[in-house]
Amino acid sequence: MVALIFYGLMLGAAWLLGVVWLELDLLVWSERAQVSLGLQVALGAGVGLLAVWASRQSEHYTSWGKTLSEEFARMLGPMTPGQIQVLALTSGVAEEIFFRGFLQQALSGFEWAGGAGIWVGLVASSVVFGLVHIGPDREKFLPWTWMALGVGAVFGLMYLYTGSVLAPIIAHITINYFNLTHISRQAARAQSEEPPPSQESR
């Protein structure tokens, strides 16, 4: 419910600022070249799975990756399949429509930037996307912020290439679904390994 409310507000803000105020199409960037629907789906799924694989490698081979995974498991705890699906779907759709469909497209329209406007929009929206991914402990979650900045730039490039938010949405949902599933399993395993509370004898 919290996720639905939060991401619903994000979509509402994107609609008010992008559609009502700037008269933008939040789903399709008509000024950019568009590619086939099949290629958009394949690109989104491929990038998403590659990012999930990279996450598992960082967790396995780096101390910061392992710490980050443990912190997320401790913070989020075990989740039901329904909760994971709702979080992955709502975050993927709302964030991509807001950060790519609205923010990147809007910032790319700066007249002072001239021909570099699309790159200004890409960089600025990616930086903002990274900055909103700051965890409660900045030191432990700093790698997450940097990864979000990098992934945001990749999503922005996909948006530029396809002219649609579909590929970034699919990639974002894929990443969140598999990573949340992994985190949930870690949290459940950690709870099962905890020793039972000791009972004092009367």
Automatic annotation (TrEMBL):
Pfam families: Rce1-like (PF02517). The chain crosses the membrane at residues 6-28, 35-54, 112-134, 141-161. Residues 84-178 form the CAAX prenyl protease 2/Lysostaphin resistance protein A-like domain. Keywords: Membrane, Transmembrane, Transmembrane helix. Coiled coil: none annotated. One of its GO terms (biological process) is CAAX-box protein maturation. GO terms for molecular function: endopeptidase activity. It comes from the Bacteria. InterPro entries: Rce1/LyrA-like_dom. The keyword Transmembrane applies. This is CAAX prenyl protease 2/Lysostaphin resistance protein A-like domain-containing protein. It comes from Lujinxingia litoralis.
